[in-house]
Known about the structure:
Layout: H1 3-15, H2 23-34, H3 65-74, H4 77-80, H5 100-118, H6 122-131, H7 140-155, H8 161-172, H9 179-186, E1 196-197, H10 205-218, H11 220-223, H12 231-245, H13 247-254, H14 271-287, E2 293-294, H15 297-315, H16 320-344, H17 351-365, H18 377-387, H19 390-400
Antiparallel strand pairs: 1-2
Amino acid sequence: MSNTSHRDLVRHRIDAISGRLSDDLIERMKADRTAGWVNPYRTDDASALRREARPSDEPSLWRPSFVRDVEKIIHTPAYNRYAGKTQVFSFRSNDDLSRRGIHVQLVSRVARDIGYALGLNCDLIEAIGLGHDLGHTPFGHAGERALNDVFHARTGRWFFHNVHSVRVLDVLYGRNLTLQTLDGVLTHNGEYEQRVFELSGLKDFATFDRKVASCYESGEVAIGTLRPMTLEGCVVRISDIIAYVGRDRQDAIAAGLLSEDAFDDGLGGSYNSWILSHASADIIEHSYGKDRIEMSPELFEEIRRAKAENYDKIYRSSGIEGERAEVLGRAFSLMYEHCLGDLKARDESSYIFRHHIRRIEQGLAHYGRRYEWEDDLDQTVVDYIASMSDGYFTELATKLFPEIRFPQRTYINEC
């Protein structure tokens, strides 16, 4: 198929996605609201489950269960570090390019819009949306792969940011979040698209913990089977893709790496606006009143196509994977071995002790818990490296390993 014919096919599919709700559904939604309809499949606050029955976590009229989860998340140090973790373009001196902090806000916003129309619990959606990437490494998915490579080589276990996000919230910061929020964080992984999202039927922490353990042990085999236990989690999962597929295109164009006409759909940076509006309407149209979240076959194929095009033209070519993957992999390996050596030597003057272990211990002491860092030194190293912002990792790596050469970020190029 010629390039022109392919582009025509893409644009034809895009034109087939209306981007508006049908008149019948609009009338149905108006009638339901007038009648005080409550979605029978939404997650009620009364169903919230926590590991511990802490008096301080009891819900109130103004701070129900999932509102408390939102507040717990945004007050973690890991949430602060979102601002220092880039999304795709890690060595660009352009503050308009997306950081992970804006990404999670966009996911939460898109998901709340869809969830509100469907009559779901928007507080639970917000908690999952804001917390879903707390375990992400510096340097986006390139950093995730680099950390996984060295961790897996040493231990046979696997590192995935969604699994580590659960550890950050549930173990490292001991926030006693609800099962529903933790499950949504674990199962959010937007890299695995589906047309129909059905619920897992999860009911308890014991089953959840086994799912988490299987992800460490089996990697993608287990990750690929994850399904949310709530419709709210399903909405966040598809919203993750919707939030980044168009935004990453805008960033690639803003960074001067691709032109407006580089993409087959012909929309350039405005694809972001198109996907946000059209995908939301399509999902609402096909999911309203159902016990699952789904989209039209046309939207599903378009999302798959757009993601594949992003991988081809952005992530593998223009993003950090295409530019600095080898240097980054070497830096992660050296950092890992250095930190592991500090732990084995019990060097309490080292950065991993001063900047990580002591801070985690201080936070957990508030809940009468302790950081079991000595039980698994490899996991402790992973906890530390994954927590780093891009800037922290770059500065520490440069200090410890002068042979590593990261590109210098400069805002003003002098002639």
